[in-house]
Amino acid sequence: MSDADQSGFTKASLTWNPPINNEPFHIKFHGNISTKLPPTRPDIQRSGYAAFRTKDMGRTIFGETFWDMDQYKYLAIKLKSDGRRYHVNLQSDTLISTDIHQHRLYTNDNNNNNNKIINDENDNDNNDKNKNKNKWETILLSFDDFVRTNHGMPVEPMSELMKNKLKSVGIGLIDRIEGPFEICISEIYATN
């Protein structure tokens, strides 16, 4: 999804990539952000975003199904990023269907020590930003650090994420900075 769904001009694609040249299987979320407002839609005040999410798990004869992450502390994501300011979005079974819990996705390129980062390539020198750009790394995000939002704005009261009823996991780029973007994701999983 992107602002193109509301007549915006952002282009976004999600492609599946097989393992080639020591690259793992991964998806590539890429495109070009545009903040240009659609001239035919005066009701649109902002543009310049793109996101994707997993499909809901579906229903059984017993009702809707969810992922149960109660026993885990972290969401882990193995990725290779262009260094832009992405967010991880978790949707759980809430009373307000548009509520999501968000966490900023800090990588080696933009880390402020809020995330635990595990370098997946044998490189102990993390001080050179250009050296770390486009390298595979695993980010650990604490489930307790996700913030409840609705339409991108923090919501009060700040309710705890219902880890036992996760519906979807997604990644979005909402920095509203024009230009190309690319993030590759090989794995998303829960861990301790």
Report strand order across the widest sheet: 1-2-14-6-10-9
Spatial extent as radius of gyration:
17 Å
Tally of distinct domains: 1
Uncertain runs are: 122-127
Q: Which architecture name does CATH use? A: Sandwich
Give helix % range.
under 10%
Care to count the β-strands? 14
Q: Which CATH C-level class is it?
A: Mainly Beta
Order of SSEs, N→C? EEEEEEEEEHEEEEE
Tell me the CATH superfamily. Answer: Galactose-binding lectin
Descriptive notes:
It contains one helix and 14 strands. It has a single domain, classed as Galactose-binding lectin (Jelly Rolls), CATH 2.60.120.430. It has one helix at 129-132, and strands at 11-17, 26-33, 50-53, 59-60, 63-64, 74-81, 86-92, 99-105, 116-119, 137-142, 147-150, 153-154, 166-173, 179-191. The model is unreliable at 122-127 (pLDDT under 50). The protein is mainly beta. Strand 1 and strand 2 (26-33) form a beta hairpin. The strands form three sheets. A six-stranded antiparallel β-sheet has the order 1-2-14-6-10-9, with no helix packed on it.
